[in-house]
Amino acid sequence: METNEVLEIALSSGYLLLSNGAEAYRVEETIERICSAYSLECECITTANGVFVSVLNKNGEKVTSLRKVRNPKVDLYKIELINTFSRNIQDNNISYEEALQSLKEIESAPEFSFPVRIFAACMTSFVYSLFFNGTVFDSIISATISIGIYIMMDKISKLGFFQFLEFFFSGFLIGLISMMADALLPFASEQNIITGAIMILLPGVPLTNGIKDIIYGDFTPGFIKVGEALLIVVAIGAGIGAALTLGAGVRL
Amino acid sequence: MIKQIILAFFGSIFPVILFNIDRKKIIWAGFAGSLGWATYLAVYNFYMPSVALSSFAGALVVGLYSEIMARLLKTPAVQFSIPGIFPLVPGIIAYMTISSIVKQDYSAATYLGFQALAAGGAISFGIMIASTTTRLISMITKHDTD
Known about the structure:
The structure holds two protein chains of two kinds. Chain A folds into two domains: 3-107, no CATH class; 114-251, no CATH class. Chain A is 70% helix and 8% strand. Chain A has helices spanning 3-19, 24-37, 76-91, 96-107, 114-131, 136-159, 163-184, 190-197, 204-215, 219-251, and strands at 42-47, 50-56, 62-68. A three-stranded antiparallel β-sheet of chain A has the order 1-2-3, with helices on one face. The longest helix of chain A is centred in the last third of the chain and has 33 residues, at 219-251. The N and C termini of chain A lie far apart (74 Å). By secondary structure, chain B is mainly alpha-helical. Classes of the chains: A mainly alpha, B mainly alpha. At the A-B interface, helix 3, helix 5, helix 8, helix 9 and helix 10 of A face helix 1, helix 4, helix 5 and helix 6 of B.
């Protein structure tokens, strides 16, 4: 394989990892593994939304390339596939066309369909409402709210909207609907509905990945991810707080 | 108690579908959640009724479980640690904090807010210690990290 082709494969793998929510050390390890499989020296830096790779070609010139991630999402299955792919390259040096082909296959790997994901979101809220000692009625209301929230979040994230506003708005809606349910239905409890419904919004992935990045010494992406997670929590809290304050004013 | 552990199992399975996990590994993610919550309950009821300490113990067990499973199934550890900490998240305390702020009961809000912060920090620290320990072991035995 030519230097440029190795660079392209390594960069594409790194890009796919980063855009599907992998930790920074995994991205760097994968790129270094692919480059060293073709006996190239490489330097690599990962930030929260971009990868930089620099390799030495045969003439001793440095070739640097970067790619930016615009719409990151979480897809654990693709991370696993790329992990296997990079080990495969390490064990048997495959050709450029083969590598491109398998990267293309990974990119179009199967996902759960939209109805299945809605069902999962709905059941998450149902289970957690019960888990925090709610009744079945609370769980059903909570599950209904989370169907609406999940569909809304999916549509808004496709628009590339400012993400903290969408979390604030989701929190606001959750607070508003559960307060109305509490006031209108005698058997519903606001607390259990809210605790169930916010579970699908929680930033579990940025938090755990950020901590892992910090452990591995990648402070730049690590603190950015932890900060992002904290901002999301604050946005949800502010949304719910705004709705509850509004409700408290109405009741008085 | 048994009911809560079973609910924790489902509470780890459903959120992980949103993250598109490999279908064959969903059930192992569920066990991560039950194991973490069982540890939480055991520490809370039989050792010391402290939210932070119990969350720490739960997260530590989840972290160790996911690192072990990651090596057995040859897959990244995050697939099990992310769903595993879902039941430990202090959702109720966070809600009660906001609700006290709305009621302008700031002393209760401070008390509850610090409790939620401590529980969140304890979860992070548990995962951190589990993953640092396994990394240290794999560095000593010269296996490459996964």
